[in-house]
Amino acid sequence: MNIMDTPSDQIIRRYLKRWPVAAFLLAEMPLTTFSLSSPQTGTDYQIMVEAPEAADEPGPWPAVLFMDGDEVFEYAVNVYRELRASNAVPPVLLVGVGYGLSPMAFGDWTNFTFTKSANKRLRDYTATQMQTEPESGGANDFVAFLTDTLLPELARRYSVDSTACGLAGHSLGSLAVIHALLHAKPVFTRFLASAPSLWWDDRSPLKQIATRRENSPNLSAKLYLSIGADDALDMTGDFTLLEQQLSENPFDGLELIVRRIPQRDHYNVIEEAFREGLLNLFSHP
User: Fold this and answer.
1) In a domain? residue 27
2) Measured between alpha carbons, how far is 78 from 23 in angstroms, rounded to an integer?
């Protein structure tokens, strides 16, 4: 298995071929960005923030942290702005966690950011070390960075509601989301996992969930799980296994929303997954 998100050696070319062209034509967005060093991982992260206008929408606000911020944060911001325009969700502090790499231009597969050495998603998002990927398995340190370094920094800069913070990710990024969910005392309470790469390390995420359920069946959180109905068969098959596992051995207190999004695959599902996830996790009571 290579470092990509699906077990296919053609993922880059498929990515370029099937991701909507319009996604790469987004307008420039006036986001706040800053660099934050992590004592836990030894990495400097690029943090991108879409903050409500404090004068018009005073906090505190829930904060949602998006994995793979270099590539997917624009999609999150786009759908959030649409939802806010229709008052479908309350003000939320959106945060992209990236590595300071520019998103690739459409058609430029040589600049695919997931393959750049500065991108540490393989290390940060995986909880177990796969034999063929010696740098993997650093999710404990990465989640510690999110909870012990990034959240306090966000609370210093913004009015954050620490009781309603969430994590969001797609593909390999969803493994970090699931890992944080399984912590004995989760700091986050709302989780958005789109097309999780459950194949990782012989389906180790499913084993982690089973172990957590056996050791402690209580898990007070809200989880939105989704996948494109047209994703690869191995991805949708693993997704079904996860759904069955959570249904047959449910956690006490876990509110689960499962969605298969029609006519979407692994590459063009992101905006719809983020839109539905934010609606389900943060819509007005």
Assistant:
1) yes
2) 10
User: Which secondary-structure segment (H or E) carries 263?
Assistant: none
- The per-residue DSSP string of 182-251 comes to TSSS-S--EEEEES--TTHHHHHHHHHHHHHHHH--EEEEEEEEEEETTS-HHHHHHHHHHHHHHHHSPP
Residue 1 belongs to some domain of the structure? no
Containing domain of residue 225, as a range?
11-282
Domain membership flag for residue 195: yes
Q: How many CB atoms lie within 10 A of CB 7?
A: 14
Number of domains in the chain: 1
pLDDT of 89 over the 80 cut:
yes
- Predicted model pTM: 0.87
Instruction: Give a yes or no: residue 105 inside a domain.
Output: yes
Cα-based distances in Å from 128 to 135, 140, 184: 10, 10, 17
| Model confidence pLDDT, tens digit, residues 239-281 | 999 999 999 999 999 999 999 999 999 999 999 999 999 999 9
